[in-house]
Design goal:
The complex is a heterodimer of chains A (365) and B (309).
Chain A: H1 2-21, H2 23-44, H3 49-61, H4 64-89, H5 97-114, H6 120-149, H7 153-171, H8 209-226, H9 228-238, H10 240-245, H11 250-277, H12 288-298, H13 303-327, H14 333-364
Helix pairs in contact in A: 1-14, 2-14, 3-4, 3-13, 4-8, 4-11, 4-12, 4-13, 5-6, 5-7, 5-11, 5-12, 6-7, 6-11, 8-9, 8-13, 12-13, 12-14
Chain B: H1 2-5, H2 9-33, H3 41-59, H4 61-86, H5 90-112, E1 129-130, H6 132-136, H7 138-144, E2 146-147, H8 149-167, H9 169-179, H10 181-186, H11 191-217, H12 229-239, H13 244-266, H14 273-277, H15 279-292
Antiparallel strand pairs in B: 1-2
Helix pairs in contact in B: 2-8, 2-11, 2-12, 2-13, 3-4, 3-5, 3-11, 3-12, 4-5, 4-11, 8-9, 9-11, 12-13, 12-15, 13-15
Classes of the chains: A mainly alpha (365), B mainly alpha (309).
């Protein structure tokens, strides 16, 4: 009897290890645990978890409009999460996406309202390119600090975030250079219609932005897994000492990866501005740049899986709005869900190794 | 206008502003000296600032400080467990705490206080210490006569941590564990235990910094009120070369810049407020570049989990 139960016990442990090591199973576990933790915490806060989750679900998928809003929220999440994954693959932790989104929005709005008389086929790509370039330039500083001086990119990109928030608030403040003088709101003038991203689904606000995001996912996947550049980025990310020994200058690839990553952040802000708000607002992002970290990890840092994980977070973001309105449960539970997901995803590998070492030791003894 | 910019009160106000940065940089110093990177200090400060305001509302100001410090210690324990026992990536774990700190306070505030969303009501604060004797002295009185007790605690922690790290056996061991854990282990030092204690202490220091912000410096918690001070503290730690005295010097420098910025605004300098507000962050970046040019390196084993063979 005793040997059989210890045998079952061991099988159970091996199953846990298998789940922790299998990429998709591990992501599902992380998502499940995150939703379960929030479910259990809600009654403590005096909220009804069943009611909250059903309105969350209805807000995310309950109607055509809801699905449109989910895909709309997915768009900047997908683009910025691709940015996070790209930098991470090169060993860089770009926590500056939120600021890069903001400067991308500044550039897109400026090109969008200040240039007149261009055909849409020129104006729109120009505005998108401006947002991409603005993001990339915002990432250049931290990239050089890392490559040249070895300054950790977490501190420098966070500082750049705060600078971006204050500067874009200045742009649309009372004496700011981009302020719409005819409007009391802290906002820029509305962009020309030639710079607007067209809607693609009747009855919803969904735009061509989603197509841009999906193409970006394919391009980042292609870059990382099918090109020499992507290979070198990944080698630097795995072990930059080994990369140097192998003749790859790590510092060059830090700059390239950070600028591409930050450029994607800028593009996310551009798409959001040209497709949703049509003008620069001082703070329009509900934290997409920070969500991107959890989205990216949940997608196993794989550009194509990130399409799925960003859809899930898009659903959380759009559903949480209805949940807050109907159940009084703050939409900020998305951050709690992010937290649990990040914990579980970062634990999975080392925990699997730890358990294996423990049971390995037991059998040897 | 000039006397608005440069006067004695700028010294006391920069000490006030430097205090949370100093506590964050001490938190970073003790953790990294033991070999664990802690970029979650920002999040710990923010969650502790909330916990302290919460505690102060229901229990009073001093118990509020205690609640803030305890929550900081608990978050330190979580980071220690993830980094030392599970050995997961220290930057990723700490980021989870930073993200939790953005959202969790708002959720609790909106459930506990009806009609409040991103900030708590005004709560009891820890009163300033009026030192009668000092107050009577002409210059010293103006600078040190009316400060919060936590300011004194923070600055007294500097020599305390200096002695601990550089004059005691425990301090030598903490540094050894952060530089070359395998050698320390061979000599019979308990590597995980020292790292656990250091990271918990780090959390408590950050927690004290958070409590200072919400119930000493201000009288309520509001969303994102740390404004990057945890990260600026980490920059001060680097600028101060991982020593408590250096961290203090750097924190005072950052505090002076911020106080100058605030004075410049009230003096009506023709520079927009938002532009002036970028000053602390720009200065932090410049400070990092200045140190990095000299190639100083932190503790050798910082960020690497220790695996005993």
């Amino acid at each position: 009897m005793k040997t059989q139960s210890s045998f079952q016990h061991r099988q159970g442990i091996e199953l846990v290890v298998a789940v922790l090591e299998e990429p998709i199973a591990r992501s599902l576990l992380a998502l499940f645990l995150a939703l379960a933790v929030v479910f259990l915490v809600m009654p403590v806060l005096g909220a009804n978890p069943l009611g909250a989750y059903s309105s969350l679900f209805a807000g995310a998928f309950g109607s055509k409009q809801a699905i449109g809003e989910t895909s709309l929220a997915m768009t900047p999440l997908l683009i910025s999460s691709l940015g996070f994954a790209l930098a991470y693959k090169c060993g860089l932790f770009n926590i500056g996406l939120e600021g890069q989104i903001q400067v991308g929005a500044v550039a897109a709005a400026f090109v969008g309202y200040s240039i007149h008389g261009l055909p849409s086929a020129v104006h729109l790509p120009l505005a998108l390119a401006a947002s991409l370039a603005a993001g990339a330039i915002w990432g250049l500083g931290p990239a050089i600090l890392k490559a040249r001086f070895g300054i950790h990119e977490v501190i420098s990109t966070i500082m750049m975030n705060y600078i971006a928030f204050k500067l874009s608030a200045y742009m649309v403040s009372v004496q700011g250079p981009m302020k719409d003088r005819l409007d009391l709101m802290p906002a820029s003038p509305v962009i020309e219609s030639s710079a607007k991203l067209a809607r693609i689904m009747g009855g919803t606000r969904l735009t061509w932005g989603i197509a841009i995001a999906l193409v970006a996912a394919f391009l980042v996947w292609f870059l990382l897994s099918k090109t020499r550049l992507g290979y070198k980025l990944r080698v630097v990310g795995q072990n930059h000492f080994a990369a140097e020994v192998g003749g790859i200058r790590a510092s060059h690839y830090y700059v390239i990866a950070m600028m591409l990553s930050a450029g994607l952040g800028g593009l996310a802000g551009g798409v959001e501005t040209l497709g949703v708000h049509y003008r620069l607002l001082a703070s329009f992002s509900p934290g997409y740049g920070f969500d991107a970290i959890a989205v990216s990890l949940l997608g196993g840092l794989h550009p194509l899986y990130i399409i799925v994980s960003s859809f899930i977070f898009g659903a959380l973001r759009s559903g949480a709005i209805l949940m807050q309105a109907k159940e009084g449960m703050s939409k900020d539970i998305v951050q709690v869900i992010s937290t649990v997901i990040i914990f579980v995803m970062s634990m999975a590998d080392p925990l699997g190794r730890l358990i294996k070492r423990r049971i390995g030791l037991k059998t040897n003894a | 206008m000039l006397e608005h910019l440069v006067n004695l009160s700028i010294i006391s106000s920069s000490l006030r502003i430097a205090t949370p940065i100093l506590l964050a940089s001490l938190a970073g110093t003790i953790s990294e000296r033991s070999g664990v990177i802690n970029i979650g200090i920002e999040g710990v400060m923010l969650l502790s600032a909330f916990a302290a305001a919460f505690g102060s509302f229901f229990l009073g100001a001093w118990p509020g400080v205690l609640v803030g410090v305890m929550v900081g210690g608990a978050l330190g324990l979580v980071h220690a467990f993830m980094s030392i026992t599970v050995r997961s990536d220290q930057v990723v774990n700490a980021t989870a705490v930073n993200i939790l700190a953005i959202g969790l306070p708002n959720i609790i505030i909106s459930r506990v206080w009806k009609g409040y969303y991103s900030s708590t009501p005004i709560v009891p604060v820890v009163r300033n210490l009026r030192l009668e004797l000092l107050d009577r002295l002409p210059v010293v009185g103006k600078v040190f006569g009316d400060l919060n007790p936590i300011v004194y605690v923070a600055f007294l922690l500097v020599p305390a941590m200096h002695v601990l790290l550089f004059k005691t056996r425990v301090g030598l061991r903490i540094r050894a564990v952060g530089e070359l854990p395998i050698a320390a282990d061979t000599l019979g030092v308990n590597v995980p235990k020292l790292r656990y204690l250091s990271v918990i202490a780090s959390g408590m220091l950050a927690g004290l910094g958070g409590a200072y912000l919400s119930i000493c410096y201000q009288s309520q918690f509001s969303m994102g009120m740390t404004e990057g001070r945890g990260f600026i503290g980490l920059a001060a730690m680097i600028f101060g070369r991982w020593t408590p005295v250096g961290a203090m010097a750097a924190s005072i420098l950052f505090g002076l810049a911020d106080a100058f910025q605030a004075n410049a605004q009230s003096a009506g300098l023709p520079i927009p407020a938002e532009i002036m507000l970028t000053l602390p962050y720009v200065l932090t970046l410049l400070a990092l570049i200045k140190v990095a040019g000299k190639r100083v390196l932190g503790p050798a084993a910082a960020g690497q989990p220790y695996v005993k063979n």
